[in-house]
Automatic annotation (TrEMBL), chain A:
InterPro entries: Metalloenz_LuxS/M16 (IPR011249), MPP/UQCRC_Complex (IPR050361), Pept_M16_N (IPR011765), Peptidase_M16_C (IPR007863)
Domain annotation Peptidase M16 C-terminal: ranges: 188-362
Leader sequence segment: 1-20
Domain Peptidase M16 N-terminal: 39-180
Organism: Aquicoccus porphyridii
Any single Pfam family the record assigns to this protein: Peptidase_M16_C
Name under which the protein is recorded: Insulinase family protein
A molecular function GO annotation: metal ion binding
Keywords from the named record: Signal
């Protein structure tokens, strides 16, 4: 059965060139804004993705949460419209605008119908260029953010993330929550939000992708109208973080039946020649859903958890190799022990040729299946630009995976998997664990 | 005010254009084909040829509400065990084979259905269909696999429920909603009953409910109906129907005569909230009008920034940081229409609940804002266009409906029924449903919350 399945999968690679249906054009608007476009006229709408590099990490140390609160206010009144008028106008057009913030970016995801494209773009433009930051809107959205911060203070998953970030990143902006604290958010002023807007939404850090019922010429015109009036230059990005891993276990006491665990060690940058070997290695270790070693050992064989995953984190200013698991308080020590054992086994014994083949077959076979909708393709293309991938990357990606040898993976395992620095944060009442 | 009037005039003109332009060719169900195999298995094919991908799903008309008393969680537990092998597949080999072919697979359980799916290259359909048909009749379970998987499910319950006071609150509140109907029992099961589930209870449930005449096959993506029919006849066609399949008759609720109230305290609650859920009728096959009115009512009352509750409680006054309304219309038996108010800082739960009730009363008195109704209907029309971008979601929509008492024709009629809802329909539905004697009101709070002391006094 195994041999049969692999033979099938080899056919699959031939039958499915990775380029399947995705023809990306680079479009430069008359005003000089660059975007990646896939024309897909069969459904009369466009998915448009904008990313502004920087995000929450642009906050000044005493203004933590400013970029996040600013982003939340973009749709709360702009130009001639207050918050309610803006929302009604969006509904009338049946457009959808989502504004989001992460450590490294402010993201705008827009969907609009061909029929109302011009009106939708005019509306979206107002929110990006001329947000009002009305005092009543600031108070209202600030109240929502404070409520969410207070909830995070009693949520074991959020607590684990916060303690972990502080320990690993220290004074870097990554070391504190991007929504800020009750104190920092309470003292943010309207001027702080105007400054955050001016610093975060600028053309020197912008990436754009569009998929749908629109031509290159139409997109160029649209982009100049939408984004032409943004400032050229924004705020300075933070420097690189210097993640620290002491290899220990930090227990945070919290009265809840199941302990929540995060763990990490140093990661690897996407541009490093060993990235794909590490990526495949992680897939085998803990990235591959039900098939991974961690899932097999800790869930399938021992029933210690509902799910365990590991992943490479490629942030702009730091690279981590992270993982997470949750187990009841009386079993979590056993789960952590098993994670350490798998980590050590991967370093010392590497992976087998069969595991490597399976991982490659999955990774190369599943890759073309991602490109199955305007929204997903637009999100993938903007992420590619943020990671600095070339526009022909999609056609070359499976070759990069296939080029990795068993020797590469096992060398990377020996060099990079580091059980001594693998550090854990545990939130709960774990038995048999202490700091 | 004049600025607002100008804007309105502009946008009213716009929306007329849109309505006209959306009429032709905008329907998502153009690409849907439906047929039934000789053994009673229904088949739905949804075509989308933009990418070489297919989603293959089998939906069983059985869920947590069909469980024998005392065996809560068995439907979901069996769903887990379905990955543990057959006469010809080793435990885990199903998922392993899907992964080796570049696909992914999973399953989910609800009150009225259990569904299994694989997302895979379209030319792998034969392979996954063969394996799915195999496990419909040939499941084999070892006692060791059953015992380990029960631990996994207990950890799943820990993660979803025990570790989250909001989930515990919803579970308790749901139990208060239904005195007699199994919708009051959690899908994942009560912990003490999960602990007693074993191989025999799982296999008995499997034998009773897993059969082609109790299943719906949905294939969506880069596939042709003829090709799906040929494959379905090859793999599912030979499976024998279960002649003893009984009608889905669950114990029904007695008339509710008094409001039920619940105060749930947990030290892990940082943000208290109040929730009210009224018993409401579900979508009925061939008669979905009342459900359509309730669906639009939920949008008008709590569908977002411009909804009535947000307008009154978050904008005109700062009583709430969040409000919402939700109607779970797709359901085999009676369902709920629920409201949530999350109070702003300094507002007690009693004040929040009083404001919610005052707002509801005012809504019924004011009548419907026809412009708001137009906006909601415009968004529903546009949703049909956006829906065509996500064929997996469309497949889910058909699967949920057809396992919960509706037909394919009902699903396809639904958008037009929504558009035909009038202001009077909505008000009549609201008058009928908003009766506190047929509702549960729940407060979620930390023990130290002053609002809670008020309630005790």
């Amino acid at each position: 059965m195994i041999r049969f399945a692999i033979a099938l999968a080899a056919t699959l690679l031939l039958a499915l060139p990775a380029r399947a249906g995705v023809e990306i054009k680079e479009v430069t608007s008359p005003g000089g804004i660059t975007a990646w476009l896939v024309e897909e006229p069969s459904i009369p709408f466009v998915a448009l993705e904008l990313r502004f590099r920087g995000g929450g990490s642009l906050d000044a140390p005493d203004k933590r949460g400013a970029t996040s609160l600013m982003t939340g206010l973009l749709e709360e009144g702009a130009g001639e419209m207050d918050a309610r008028e803006f929302a009604r106008a969006t509904e009338r057009l049946a457009a959808s605008f989502r504004y989001d913030v992460s450590d490294d970016a402010v993201s705008i995801s827009a969907k609009f119908l061909t029929e109302t494209r011009d009106e939708a773009i005019a509306l979206l433009r107002e929110s990006l260029i001329a947000p009002r930051f009305d005092p009543d809107a600031i108070d209202r959205v600030r109240g929502q953010m404070l409520s969410s911060i207070r909830s995070d203070e009693k949520d074991p998953r959020a607590i684990a993330g916060r303690v972990f970030d502080a320990a690993v990143y220290g004074d870097h902006p990554y070391g504190t929550p991007l929504d800020g604290t009750v104190d920092s958010v309470s003292t943010l002023t309207r001027d702080d939000l105007i400054a955050a807007h001016r610093g975060a939404l600028a053309r020197d850090r912008l990436h754009v992708s569009a998929v749908g019922d629109i031509t290159a010429d139409e997109l160029g015109t649209l982009l100049d109208r939408l984004l032409g009036d943004l400032p050229e230059v924004g705020a300075d990005l933070p420097g690189p973080a210097a993640p620290r891993f002491d290899g220990g276990v930090e227990v945070v006491d919290f009265d809840t039946p199941q302990s929540v665990v995060q763990f990490a060690q140093p990661g690897i940058d996407f541009d490093h020649p060993d990235y794909f070997a590490a990526y495949i290695l992680n897939h085998i270790l803990g990235g591959g859903g039900f098939e991974s070693r961690l899932m097999s050992e800790i869930r399938e064989k021992r029933g210690l958890t509902y799910g365990i995953y590991s992943y490479l984190v490629d942030k702009d200013q730091a690279d981590l190799w992270m993982g997470s698991v949750a187990s009841s308080n009386d079993r979590v020590a056993e789960a952590i022990e098993a994670v350490r054992a798998e980590w050590t086994r991967a370093r010392d014994a590497g992976v087998t040729a069969e595991e490597l083949d399976r991982a490659k077959t999955y990774l190369t076979g599943s890759y073309p299946l991602r490109f199955d909708g305007n929204g997903p393709i637009a999100r993938i293309m903007v992420a590619m630009q943020m990671s600095g991938m070339p526009i022909d990357y999609i056609a070359t990606r499976n070759d990069r995976v296939n080029a990795v040898t068993l020797e590469d993976v096992n060398r990377v395992a020996r060099e990079r998997i580091d059980p001594e620095r693998l550090s854990f944060v545990v939130v709960g009442r774990p038995q048999g664990l202490s700091n | 005010m004049s600025r607002l009037m100008t804007l309105r005039a502009v946008f009213l003109a716009l929306s007329v254009t849109v309505i006209l332009a959306l009429a032709p060719g905008a329907r998502a169900d153009d690409a849907v084909t439906h047929f039934t195999l000789d053994n009673g298995m229904a088949v739905v094919v949804i075509e989308d040829h933009r990418a070489p991908v297919a989603v293959h799903m089998v939906w069983y008309r059985v869920g947590a509400a069909d469980e024998p008393p005392g065996q809560s969680g068995i439907a979901h537990f069996l769903e887990h065990l379905m990955f543990k092998g057959t006469e010809t597949l080793a435990p885990g080999e199903f998922s392993r084979t899907v992964a080796r072919n570049g696909g992914r697979d999973n399953a989910f359980t609800s009150y009225d259905y259990t569904a299994y799916f694989q997302r895979i290259a379209a030319d792998r359909l034969d392979l996954v269909m063969g394996m799915e048909a195999d496990r419909m009749v040939n499941l084999r379970l070892s006692p060791e696999d059953v015992a380990t998987e029960r631990d996994v499910v207990i950890e799943e319950r820990n993660q979803r429920t025990e570790n989250d006071p909001s989930s515990l609150f919803r579970e308790q509140k749901n139990a208060a909603q239904y005195l007699n109907h199994p919708y009051g029992v959690p899908i994942i099961g009560w912990r003490h009953e999960i602990e007693t589930l074993d191989r025999e209870t799982a296999l008995a449930f499997y034998e009773r409910f897993y059969a082609p005449n109790n299943a719906i096959l949905i294939v969506a993506g880069d596939v042709a109906p003829d090709e799906v029919r040929a494959l379905a006849e090859k793999h599912y066609g030979p499976l024998p129907p279960n002649p003893d399949l009984a009608p889905r008759a669950r114990p029904q609720e007695p008339p509710q005569l008094a409001e039920r109230r619940l105060l749930f305290e947990d030290a892990r609650v940082a943000q208290p909230w109040v929730s009210r859920s009224y018993t409401a009728p579900p979508r009925e096959s061939g008669a979905q009008e009342k459900a359509a009115a309730l669906n639009i009512l939920a949008e008008l009352l709590g569908g977002g920034t411009t909804s009535y509750l947000a307008e009154k409680l978050q904008f005109d006054e700062q009583i709430a940081v969040y409000t919402s309304a939700f109607y779970g219309g797709t359901s085999l038996d009676d369902t709920t229409f629920s409201l949530v108010v999350v109070p702003a800082e300094g507002v007690t739960l009693q004040e929040a609940e009083d404001a919610m009730d005052a707002t509801l009363a005012r809504f019924l008195q004011d009548g419907i804002d026809s412009e708001q109704l137009d906006r909601v209907k415009m968004q529903l029309r546009a949703a049909q266009i956006y829906a065509r971008d996500d064929v997996e979601r469309l497949a889910n929509r058909y699967g949920r409906a057809m396992t919960q008492g509706l037909t394919l024709a009902d699903v396809q009629a639904w958008p037009d029924i929504l558009q035909s809802v009038t202001e009077d329909d909505i008000l009549a539905a609201a008058q009928e449903v908003f009766d506190r004697r047929r509702a549960v009101t729940g407060w979620l709070a930390a023990p130290s919350d002053p609002a809670q002391e008020e309630m005790i006094q």
